[in-house]
Amino acid sequence: MMNSPSRLKNLGWLVLLWCGGVTSLFILAYIIRIFMTMAGLKS
After folding, report:
1. Pairs from 8-11 (Cβ < 8 Å, separation ≥ 24)
2. pLDDT per residue over 1-30, tens digit each?
3. DSSP H helical segments within 1-43, as ranges?
4. Is the pTM of this model over 0.70?
5. What is the Cα–Cα distance from 25 to 14, expressed in whole angstroms?
């Protein structure tokens, strides 16, 4: 009974999802900062 490959696959998917979430959060914060700067420059 070797269930480590499926466990490893699940862990890989978790890491992939986590990395994707963190990256999207950073991109979102960066875009918001750019919009704030643009709004500040306009007004």
Report:
1. none
2. 566 788 888 999 999 999 999 999 999 999
3. 4-42
4. no
5. 16
